[in-house]
Fold each of these.
Amino acid sequence: MYLSFSDRRGGKDDTSKRATTPFKISPIIISLGLVSLFTDISSESVNAILPLYITGALGLSMVAYGFLDGIYQGISAIVRIGAGWTADRADHHKLVAFLGYGLSAVSRAGLLVATGFGAVTSIIAVDRIGKGIRTGPRDAMITEAAQPEHLARSFGVHRMLDTVGATIGPLLAFAVLLAIPNGYHAVFVASLACGVIGLAVLGIIVPARKQRAEILAKSAPASPHQVVTEPAGRLPFRWADLNNVGMRRLLLVAAIFGLVTIGDGFIYLVLQSRASFATQWFPLLYVGTNVAYLILAIPLGRLADRWGRMRLFIVGHGALLAAYLCAALPSTGAAATLTCLLLLGVFYAATDGVLAALAGQFSTPASRASGIAAAQTVVALSRLLASVGFGVLWFSLGRQHAILLAAVALAVAIPLSVLLVRGIKLAQVTE
């Protein structure tokens, strides 16, 4: 293994490869996208009503919601690296991902019987632990199936399908609440059904590939006189493979941004309280963001491959800063609300899949799930702290001052991150 410095596009010889290699999407990525589509219908239909369910139906404070949102954002961190390591060591990414998707599906049934804050918190924690288990192995499967020179674009295709589900989920919640006022349990039933469908697609359609075994088979000696340096059937996993300059800088920048990224639910509650529209319309705020994400996921993934993945990752947080400022404005018009939702969609399209692409780029094939999981763990932990802290700020200072303070912190984080990556060329780990 060696560390080769690359051009700004994030890959060795990217320019020549991109000029001669047409973009092709793997059926594996499409299949995983369908799994994510149904799973996101399941999770986002619940997520779209959760702020109202906690603060309205259960009558809890913003501090309680901040704690719950922190759990939602960050509890998956306790299993992400362990799940990635297990998938890498066992060379069975699909099995680990299936366990995570299954755990999330089971948690939907728990929502049907949960009545108190403690029970809801526990069930949300189980769901997010399932997400933490599945995400790293799933993204490693996407990385292995994608063309290296079109990695971010391939993630964009997956995230587009994922976001179709994330758009349908809130629409489903909206339709249910429109037909059945306070019909939260009807939303939970629909969520459970979609979660089971997604799990079935993963189990039946997505192939179970042993990536390390395939790599070794391709690199087998052409003649008996060649020396084999590794035992047959094993590609070594080494934590040291993740200790490279690109990964270190990526984790640091991701942590800084995560600490100043507040949950969408808070922003939507700000918009809802500012405009005072009826609660049944609340899920449509999620739809607005997801539609923008859906439209922009592939174009911005392609831009990341061409212009620079780290560059776009940082610029995407500029869109988040603009969304904070838009939410903090005293204006109550529809234009301001739609602009805020569009900016949030730009933020996710420019950062979500791009972060996974960067982490996969800085990892070896034998440590890819662990590398992606490490980046996602840093983000999850930092966002947990951000959500809990913002809930306290809202309770102490009020929504206006709290979101302005978050905007100031993000405005400081953006140039700081630029300085952290300046002066170094992004690197790619190569076997």
Amino acid sequence: MLGIHVRTRRAMPPETRKNDNRESRRQIVDAATELFTKTPFSDVNVEDIARSAGVAHGLVFHYFKSKARLYEVVSQGAADRLDRLHREALQRSGTPEVKLTAFLESHMMAVEQRRADYVFHSRGGGSPAIQTIWERSRRNAIHLILELYGVEAPSEPLVVATRAWLGFFDELVLEWVQGRPVPREGVIAASLSLFPAVMRQARVLGAEDAPTPRDPS
């Protein structure tokens, strides 16, 4: 009697499948990050992302459900990187003014690398989740700056005043990154000059804990 041999497919080990899933997901996020930083959100489609990532179109929806959800993941990664750059800049040696200058420079460098994305979310683009991500990053920046001047638990009036100063800086950066006639050095110099004045006015708002930064010479 002849034996019949049935050829069966070996099941892929669970750990291998998990690694493959992680790698595919990472490729999608990396591809989306590169596209969103250079191209407005509305001009990027899922087909472009899948093609750039080298994966099947359906995998994008499998892992992220929608382009908007994928953009949230990309935005969180960008916010985390920006927070890290801010911390590293403020940990450099030197006076508080030198460190604040490094903070502004690192911020502008990061913005320049992801200009399309920066303009999009700064003008209110994206879901409420996107705005929440960047609001959290903004509050992190505010607290880092105030800690630089020895204020670890700032009052709300002081947070509001610092937010106003950061908003001034952000508006100048928006103009600069869009190619308007606002020089990088001018953005930094104007923001540094305004900071001590804003801290003085913070006391008018009731911020008794406002620091007294040195006016730039």
Amino acid sequence: MFGSGSEIKSPEQVQRMREAGLVVADALAAVRAAVRPGVTTGELDRVAEDLIRSRGATPSFLGYGDPPFPATICASVNDAVVHGIPGGQLLAEGDVVSIDCGAIVADETGQGWHGDAAITVAVGEVPAEVTELMRVTEEAMWRGIAAARVGGRVGDISHAVEHHVRSQGGYGIVEDYTGHGIGTEMHLPPDVPNYGRPGRGPRLRRGLALAVEPMITLGDPRTRVAADEWTVVTVDGSVAAHFEHTFALTDSGVWVLTAHDGGRAALERLGVPYGGD
């Protein structure tokens, strides 16, 4: 441990998180393949839960929080930024849906290790400005991850996310919700905001695992929580996008635990050492 409860993992523990991360990656791939006009968000939830349980893992989100979250995924459509509860909502041509998913894999002692990731998926054809919003949000996530290095600071990640978004136009950066530490719990210190100054915040160390998750809007970044006590929506009804990956810092670099390729392609494109095995 170091600093306010942040966890430092051994290589063996990071490997267990990689197992959880691959379950999440497979679940998100299955859900992406199932997205189409006419499908309900509840049907997408069943796809994810079936896959996670078939791998001997446990959904991270189901029963989490107060009130307990009632599903395996968060399915947030259009102006819903995060924490959308899946159910009977039908997806229609032109929608976008953020799918956030977590899974727990237990080690030989019974200790659970978490993986957490999110994608935003277009339902059929969407307006060009929405496609661009998705591109900017996903790239901001990768720029944030690529800014992480042993000896750096959390603010380096935050600044890289913000700098990329600001460089692409007048997008809104949601400030009320952040990335986070992750490991034996889904949410651990430190918080990882999507804005900030480099060289600030907790120090980044080998064995630290973080989830980076920019939430970006086409309009006002302010949000409110809906009557269901979970779904976060934009106050002006503007469309939002959300992408997330869990990564760990290793002796050799950054290892994206929830990416099938460990993040190798994106990190090499950005000139960052790949830290997987």
Amino acid sequence: MQTAAAPPQTPRTPWRIPAFRRFVSASLISAAGSATAPLALAYSVIEQGGGADSLGLVLATNTLPTIVFLLIGGVYADRLSRSRILFLGNLLAAAAQGALAVTVATGHATTASIAACGLVSGTAASFIVPAVQGAMAQLVPAEHLQEANALLRLPTNAVKVLGPVAAGFLVAVTDAAWALAWDAATFAVAAVLLLGLPLEAPPAPASGVLADLRAGWAGFRSRTWLWTYTAAGTVLVAAWLAGFQLLGPLVADREYAGARDWGLVQAAFSCGLLAGTLVCLRWKPYRLLAVAVAASAALALPLAALALTLPLPLVLAAALLAGVGLDVAIVAWSTAFQQHVPQAEQGRMSAFNGVGERLAIPLGYGITALATHLWTGRTVLLACAALITAAAALNLCVPDAHRVNRRTPEAQGVTP
């Protein structure tokens, strides 16, 4: 007598899924290298005689391709095997960082050669980012997506705390070339781990790249919750980068004990990111998108604290809360996105969302540079805090922000 085969059981935790463990391992290894890259890149420019202008050019060439090619990367993330895209993207990044390490080690590095390697690395990132965003829902059951997103961020946030310290030590003891070579090696190892993961291309109609882009744009516009979150995120990211990254060190230098106190503020923010990840492992809110929007408003706290020159312990507490809020927002948003966007569209939707937030980088820095000629740094900091609060508040007024909620295992399908 034959008996029906028992249906496969859903794993109780993402850690029981071998492909997920490989994915997290690759992310951790890559993050360990990437954490050393900014400092090594800065010192490679300094060592060949470059100044602020040269470093600005290098950073711009690294960022520009992620804006130009991100949409193309999103299209291919929906057309090809995401495992293969991740493998080739990490391999390309490894080659670029390896070439840069060689030129720095041999003394042949110039601003132009460093910028060229940054251009290649930025291009690789344009294809990696959309593929990563679409990969999680292929590896993990829907009910475990939040836990998986938090587990993915836990080790990378830890690296953000320790990485810059390790990079400084490595560059001080050796030179920038060794840190760059380490970054290249981690990309190569990550590429090997990502090859062969079950991330086959989702079924999609046979059409051209431009047709896919047009269809992606139509899908992006049709999801009010997606484009309003992207628009609010562009304002929020611009205000945060301008206030925290650009003006924060300047205010700390004038009103506090300079680099020492600013280092403590950054450490508090990084610890907040770690704490936020731990919160997401325990707390699973139903209203995912509304929580993501509300939690992001915490980024206004350290900007306001710095602008009002509150005592340092209060500034540190504000930075800690901002880190918690940001990580909760990222995990909640990623989970909502993965549950409510079809697999066949996640690459393109992620790319359109990413382009908006990356445009915030030059926008925020450019506007702030102009604003500081008209107002004091403290006034601009208050304006940035107000913009973050207003962007979050307005986004919460969008009805769709309260309709994109956690899906139960029984609730199949996606939002239109």
